[in-house]
Amino acid sequence: MKALVYGGPGTREWKDVPKPVIEDPADAVVRVTAVTICGTDLHILKGDVPEVEPGRVLGHEAVGVVEEVGSSVTGLKPGDRVLISCITTCGRCSYCRTGSYGQCLGGGGWILGHTVDGVQAEYVRVPFADTSTHLLPPDVSDTAAVVLADILPTAYEVGVLNGTVKPADTVVVVGAGPIGLAAIQTAQLYSPGHVVAVDLAASRLEAAKQFGADVTAATAEEAERVVGELTGGLGADVAIEAVGVPDTFELCAKLVRPGGHVANVGVHGRPATLHLENLWIRNVTITTGLVDTVSTPTLLKMVEAGRIDGERFITHRFALGEMAEAYDVFENAGDTGALKVVLQA
Known about the structure:
Number of domains: 2
Mean pLDDT: 97
Low-confidence stretches: none
GO molecular function: oxidoreductase activity; zinc ion binding
Structural class: alpha/beta
Number of strands: 15
Shape: globular
Distance between the termini: 13 Å
Protein name: Alcohol dehydrogenase
Strand content: 15-25%
Keywords: Metal-binding, Oxidoreductase, Zinc
Oligomer: single chain
Cofactor: Zn(2+)
Order of helices and strands: EEEHEEEHEHHEHEHEHEHEHEHEHHE
CATH superfamily of the largest domain: Medium-chain alcohol dehydrogenases, catalytic domain
Organism: Lentzea albida
């Protein structure tokens, strides 16, 4: 079969690899029908995630059809259409029992495209298949469902819920890529007073308006000015970091008000400066986190009911074999206007 293989920092190749097989009774082998590329994949290619070894098949966001199941799998059968979660859960360890699937001690957590072969391939082996997939309703399309694998639950859980967005809050989202847009969309479930989007790219600021931002800013200086004007100089109630570079984290810390909350969602490959000399006296809460995907069933119901439109994140579509072209478009989003790219078999 064909798969997108990581060859070390800056190197990727769509090439022939062995088709996966059942290795554990809890496994399923799934034929991939729709897959997307994540900003985390780009961080891996930059060398920001050294745990990913050369030779690894990348990707952790996909929809597919079950081809084969292990002997202990009871909730799936061949032919079932499933969403493959970006987080794998054993369902038995102390973390999984409390819904903290991202910290799974039983062999799960973020493993697909990280420590085991991922989903940017024609077939994928899914460990703990009963607890790490979601059966899809027939009226939810592959392309609407695929954004539920990662960006929607990540933005919702690590950004909106961790940030404790409340009615009438001023929320600033720094970074209007797919995660930032998903944070803007799901923040509206809590009726914030204002949502401010900050990004360097005019195309992404325009997208942010379409997803619900009522104010935008293209520079750090502009962001500080508009947030100050909206809040009488106090600052944002919640600042959501959705990029993963030092400057954006430090900007969030500047934009938040005393008693406010900085929710870091971005994947960081370099240290950021924590200005405790300024923050200690301001009662600022800072949270970080890997998504648990505990919200995925709820978000899936909202997509099925038409309350969330997963399709609107998709700007570019490719055949599965056009993986190289899809990466080129996604990596150059500033020029191409790409939000999410989807590849379909």
